[in-house]
């Protein structure tokens, strides 16, 4: 599948990365360099329609774009991996320099610790300032300067940031870490797979069955946003084939279905059942189950059924109540989460960062089930990913969610 | 996971961190055991992780290469950098090394990034015909003479064991960071394979005698049948069953079967990112089929390529989709599918009833019902008729399994 990768970063790193993009099959790249990291969100917002995935040259521009809420497709950043640091240390050792008194920015304590410990190097005089979104170039520069002045007496400053290198390079012995070829290639491979995943997931089959009182030819005209393929069943039911991506868009991530209101203007009875399956036959069976539920729900209703998952009522957005259902029972029906589970979630302090582990703990569930609950909340627009929490041990950082229940 | 005995515990502990992953440890002492291990466990796994390129290449060259996605851990990133740091720290000159198995280009690049000259570096990249003895010999010879290498770096445990008594030898073992990179790629590739299987496909079919014979063809594809605007039959299906039924988009046996009932059968098939895009391609394909003749089929792929699908010369088509993908498509265990394959062979493909399946699997009739229903939805079982039951009850439905 063809992918266009938008590469965002300072021009020297962008230039270094672009050739690797073209090494990958079916990948082309857009070079989007900036003079100042603060431009990253604006670049992303302006170019989103031209790319299928984002590659940021570092965690800094990535975090800015992420916080600005402009990233709506697969995005990765080049990690300043241990390997770049390891190779820099090899270089220092070979020129007979000490490597046990250093100041290092951007990398995590963990990554630095592992790198030194495995090589049997004492870390008591290694100073680390990990990345934080609120730190500026001058904060990082000041950190290196202090590390050289104070009792650590760092011999070298190791930085991942070109701007910091420019600031302190003239004053202190400074080494700038650059992403290695290995890291660039692997990050790109990962991004390409994520882009494919998004595209393939979007193309997963959804079948819908529509029952409506008078003519159906008018109905078809209103289904354009589903990019559907429409067929007629012998019993008069309308069969609409669509895809997961289109239904997700048209239903605001499977929460409400505005097009139902337009259909309701044509007819006083519009009942729709959608099924999301792994084969067309399974999707049709699920759509039938959903249609049966829609008939019970009322004259104008749509229901989505999935394998091994609760049915979701895609109620039309009622203009008067400004959208979302208010009571826990309505929420339970909408999200497919039991209302007593929701009431426990409601008691969580809104300021506490919620992770799957925390939720599992509070609800007495396995982490896996807690992740499902979070996914359902996210799907219903009631939870947003707010960042990552370091996981303490070696594993992946945990995703932090912000939950907003009425 | 396929790895030599000594590396298995380290790699397995990293893979186990991944939630939702079940690890099947297939350890070997000699890489000639790899094809056997892969062949014996091929139906159990959703994805293969090899400890390095040696077992990976051995598996790929096997008579039965892995059907599920396969990756190997690359040592040329953090793992090699770590080795260089440790050796430098011990006072070795890392510019004078002999290295086996790793790609020469990657090694040289890594040295360049560390600012180390590659003039005195000796690399023996992986190659399928090279034996342990060859690798040992390569290192030995590089450790003679005036410009000799200081340390031998090897990825092969047998080479390490042979060399260690003679010359300084460093065994590369993958760092957790390298294993995680490979695992991440494997998981995404496996997910994508499943997602691709469930991607929408649209078919438009024109026939001269109504829908005779169509229903069973559609059910074999796990599909859904209705009437398109304009009057053709509208077949909605998914890429996986279509790929299998066409032997990888080359033949269309159903064309021959439909031609037994119809003078005219024209099929246009299309794939796309949306249903509408797939239908547009299907219309285009149907138009091409119409130009070609009365009994013709054309498939139009996402990239716009058209393929003419003919009736196969011989009827034998084999489904190469891995059992793990099929199992997840229909939602039953791989072991159940394997039992059903055995049942199919034992009954010589004769139609069977639900009770036969229940007896064979040792489960209740009700549970067998559910399994058969899922198989039907996944296009792996079709109804072929009815058989009067022994007693007074309802006749039993006959099924043909196509697992």
Number of helices of chain B: 16
CATH top level label of the largest domain in chain B: Alpha Beta
Order of strands across the widest beta sheet of chain B?
Answer: 10-11-9-12-13-14
Gross morphology of chain B is elongated
Strand percentage of chain A:
15-25%
Largest sheet of chain A: 6 strands, mixed
Query: Based on the structure given, which CATH architecture of the largest domain in chain B is correct?
Result: 2-Layer Sandwich
| Spatial arrangement of strands, main beta sheet of chain A | 10-11-9-12-13-14
The N- and C-terminal alpha carbons of chain A lie at a distance of 41 Å
Alpha-beta classification of chain A: alpha/beta
Query: What is the CATH topology of the largest domain in chain B?
Result: Alpha-Beta Plaits
Over all CA atoms, what is the radius of gyration of chain B?
28 Å
Distance between the termini of chain B: 26 Å
Ranges of chain A where pLDDT stays below 50 over 5 or more residues in a row are 317-323
Query: Could you say which structural class the secondary elements and strand pairing of chain B correspond to?
Result: alpha/beta
Question: Can you identify the CATH class of the largest domain in chain A?
Answer: Alpha Beta
Biggest interchain interface, per-side counts:
A-B, 72 and 73 residues
Counting DSSP E segments of at least 2 residues, the number of strands of chain B comes to 16
List keywords for this structure.
heterodimer, A: alpha/beta, Rossmann fold, Alpha-Beta Plaits, six-stranded mixed β-sheet, four-stranded parallel β-sheet, 16 helices, B: 403 residues, alpha/beta, 4 domains, 16 strands
């Amino acid at each position: 599948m063809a992918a266009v990768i938008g590469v965002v970063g300072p021009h020297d790193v962008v230039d270094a990365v672009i050739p690797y993009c073209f090494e990958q099959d079916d990948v082309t790249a857009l070079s989007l360099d900036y003079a100042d990291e603060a431009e990253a969100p604006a670049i992303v917002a302006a170019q989103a329609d031209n790319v299928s995935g984002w590659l940021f040259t570092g965690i800094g521009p990535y975090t800015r774009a992420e916080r600005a809420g402009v990233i709506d497709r697969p995005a990765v950043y080049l990690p300043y991996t241990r390997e770049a640091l390891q190779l820099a240390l090899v270089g220092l050792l070979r020129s007979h320099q000490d490597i046990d008194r250093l100041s290092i920015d951007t990398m995590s304590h963990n990554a630095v610790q592992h790198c030194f410990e495995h090589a049997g190097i004492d870390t008591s005089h290694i100073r680390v300032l990990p990345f934080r979104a609120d730190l500026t170039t001058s904060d990082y520069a000041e950190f290196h300067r202090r590390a050289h002045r104070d009792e650590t007496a760092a011999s070298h400053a190791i930085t991942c940031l070109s701007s910091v290198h420019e600031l302190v390079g003239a004053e202190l012995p400074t080494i700038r870490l650059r992403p290695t070829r290995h890291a660039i290639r692997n990050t790109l491979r990962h991004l390409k797979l994520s882009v494919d995943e998004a595209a393939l997931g979007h193309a997963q089959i959804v079948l819908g069955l529509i029952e409506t009182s008078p003519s159906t030819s008018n109905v078809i005209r209103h289904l354009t946003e589903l990019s559907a393929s429409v067929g007629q069943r012998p019993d008069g039911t309308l069969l609409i084939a669509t895809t997961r991506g289109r239904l997700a868009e048209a239903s605001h991530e499977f929460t409400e279905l505005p097009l139902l209101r337009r259909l309701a203007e044509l007819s006083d009875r519009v009942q729709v059942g959608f099924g999301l399956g792994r084969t067309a036959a399974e999707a049709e069976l699920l759509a039938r189950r959903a249609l049966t539920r829609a008939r019970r729900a009322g004259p104008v209703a749509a229901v989505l059924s999935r394998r091994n998952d609760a049915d979701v009522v895609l109620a039309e957005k009622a203009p008067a109540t400004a959208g979302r259902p208010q009571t826990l029972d309505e929420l339970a029906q909408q999200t497919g989460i039991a209302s007593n589970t929701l009431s426990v979630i409601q008691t969580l302090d809104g300021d506490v960062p919620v992770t799957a582990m925390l939720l599992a703990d509070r609800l007495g569930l396995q982490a896996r089930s807690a992740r499902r609950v979070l996914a359902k909340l996210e799907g219903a627009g009631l939870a947003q990913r707010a960042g990552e929490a370091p996981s303490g041990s070696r594993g992946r950082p945990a995703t932090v969610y912000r939950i907003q229940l009425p | 996971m396929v790895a030599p005995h000594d590396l298995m515990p380290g790699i397995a502990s990293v893979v186990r961190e991944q939630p939702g992953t079940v690890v099947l440890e297939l350890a070997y002492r000699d890489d000639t055991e790899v094809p056997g291990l892969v062949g014996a466990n091929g139906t159990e796994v959703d994805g293969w992780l090899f400890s390095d390129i040696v077992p990976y290449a051995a598996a790929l060259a096997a008579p039965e290469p892995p059907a599920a996605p396969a990756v190997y851990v690359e040592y040329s990133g953090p793992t090699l950098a770590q080795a260089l740091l440790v050796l430098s720290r011990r006072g070795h000159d890392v510019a004078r090394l002999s290295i086996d198995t790793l790609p020469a280009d990657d090694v040289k690049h890594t040295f360049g990034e560390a600012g180390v000259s590659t003039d005195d570096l000796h690399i023996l990249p992986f190659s399928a015909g090279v034996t342990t003895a060859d690798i040992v010999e390569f290192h030995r010879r590089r450790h003679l003479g005036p410009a000799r290498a200081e340390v031998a770096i090897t990825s092969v445990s047998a080479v390490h064991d042979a060399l260690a008594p003679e010359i300084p030898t460093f065994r590369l073992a993958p760092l957790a960071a390298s294993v995680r990179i490979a695992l991440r790629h494997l998981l995404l590739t496996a997910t994508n394979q499943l997602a691709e299987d469930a991607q929408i496909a649209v078919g438009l079919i024109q026939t001269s005698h109504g829908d005779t014979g169509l229903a069973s063809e559609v059910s074999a594809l796990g599909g859904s049948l209705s009437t398109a605007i304009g009057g053709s039959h509208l077949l909605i299906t998914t890429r996986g069953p279509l790929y299998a039924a066409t032997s990888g988009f080359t033949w269309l046996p159903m064309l021959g079967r439909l031609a037994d009932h119809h003078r005219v059968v024209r099929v246009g098939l299309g794939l796309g990112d949306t249903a509408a895009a797939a239908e547009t391609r299907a219309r285009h394909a149907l138009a091409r089929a119409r130009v070609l003749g009365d009994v013709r089929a054309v498939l139009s792929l996402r990239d716009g390529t058209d393929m003419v699908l003919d009736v196969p010369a011989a009827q034998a088509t084999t489904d190469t989709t891995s059992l793990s993908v099929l199992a997840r498509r229909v939602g039953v265990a791989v072991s159940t599918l394997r039992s059903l394959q055995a049942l199919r062979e034992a009954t010589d493909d004769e139609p069977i009833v639900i009770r036969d399946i229940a007896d064979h699997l040792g489960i209740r009739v009700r549970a067998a019902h559910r399994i058969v229903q899922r198989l039907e939805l996944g296009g792996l079982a079709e109804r072929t008729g009815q058989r009067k039951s022994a007693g007074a009850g309802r006749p039993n439905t006959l099924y043909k399994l196509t697992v």
